[in-house]
Amino acid sequence: MPTRDSAPTGSPCWVDLWTSDVEGSRKFYGDLFGWEAQEPSPEFGGYFMFTRDGVPTAGAMGGSMGDMPATDTWKIYLQTDDVAKPVEPAEAEGAQLVSPVMPVADLGSQAVLVDPTGAEFGAWQPGTFPGFTVLNEPGAPSWFELHTPDHSTAVAFYRSVFGWDTSAVGDSDEFRYTVMRNPGAEGELAGIMDASGFLPEGVPAHWSVYWEVDDVDATVAKVKALGGSVVMDAVDTPYGRLATVTDPAGAQFKLRRPNP
C-alpha cells in the first residue's frame, strides 16, 4: 500500500466534493469505489469523510455558502506549512481570496483561492489531520491536473507561490504540459495542461483528480449504470488508460489505470 505520513510542501494533499445531492453522492461513490461515507458533522456544517479501508480518502459536503448553491465540483488542496504565508503573494500574483484563513478545530487551517487563470483550489496547513495518506491504489487518488487556458501564467504562479520545482514534458502547440517534481524524492506530484486549444467556451480553468481503478472500461460502465455520465470515454495514453466522467449531480472527475 503506497502510504505517506504527510504530503510534500506545495503538493495536493486533500480533495473534497461540494455536492447538491448529499445522499445521492454518498451512495454513488460508495457503490462505485467501495468507499464508506461517514456521518456528517454538525460541527463542520455537515462535512463528512469518505473512507477506504478505514482511511480517509476524500471529503464532501452539501448545502449553500451564503447565497451560492453547491457547485457540484471537486476541489483540491495544496499542502503548506503556514496557510497564511501564500495568501499575500498569491494575491500579488493575481489570485483571488475566496475564503480567508480559517482554523478547522485541531485538524488544521485552510484558505480557498482562485489562481490567476481562474482555477479554484484550497491551501491546507495540517494539524492533527494530514489529508489523504494512501495513493496509487484502486479507489485512491492517482494524479492531479490543472487544465488552464494560460499555461505560462499558471506555471509561474505555482512556482512562485508554492515553491514548485517544475519540468516541461511537452512544449508544443499540440501538447504543452508541465509537471511538479517531488522536491524530496523521485517522481512527479501534479501536472499543468495547456488547455487553450480544447477548453470549452464558458468552462473555467479547473483542477481535476484522477482516481485509480483496476479496470477503466468497467468503471465507466458502472458510472453509467449508477446514473453518471461520460465526458471522455476510456482511451490509452502514455500515462495509462484514462476516462473523464461525472457523478449523477454533474461533478466531474477522472479515472486512471496506470500502465504496467
How would you describe what is shown here?
By secondary structure, the protein is of the alpha+beta class. The protein folds into two domains: 12-126, 2,3-Dihydroxybiphenyl 1,2-Dioxygenase, domain 1 (Roll); 141-257, 2,3-Dihydroxybiphenyl 1,2-Dioxygenase, domain 1 (Roll). Helix content is 15%, strand content 42%. The chain has four helices and 16 strands. Strand 7 (108-114) and strand 8 form a beta hairpin. The longest helix has 12 residues, at 22-33. The two termini are 16 Å apart.
Q: Topology, pairings included?
A:
Layout: E1 12-18, H1 22-33, E2 36-37, E3 48-52, E4 55-61, E5 73-79, H2 87-92, E6 96-104, E7 108-114, E8 120-126, E9 141-148, H3 151-162, E10 165-171, E11 176-181, E12 188-194, E13 206-212, H4 216-225, E14 229-237, E15 240-246, E16 252-257
Parallel strand pairs: 1-4, 5-8, 9-12, 13-16
Antiparallel strand pairs: 1-5, 2-3, 3-4, 6-7, 7-8, 9-13, 10-11, 11-12, 14-15, 15-16
The computed structural class is alpha+beta
How many helical elements?
4
Tally of structural domains: 2
How many strand units?
16
Low-confidence stretches: none
Morphology call: globular
CATH class of the largest domain: Alpha Beta
- The pLDDT mean sits at 95
- Beta-strand percentage range: 35-45%
Quick rundown:
Helices cover 15% and strands 42% of the residues. The chain has 4 helices and 16 strands.
Notable characteristics:
2,3-Dihydroxybiphenyl 1,2-Dioxygenase, domain 1, eight-stranded mixed sheet, 42% strand, 260 residues, alpha+beta, 4 helices
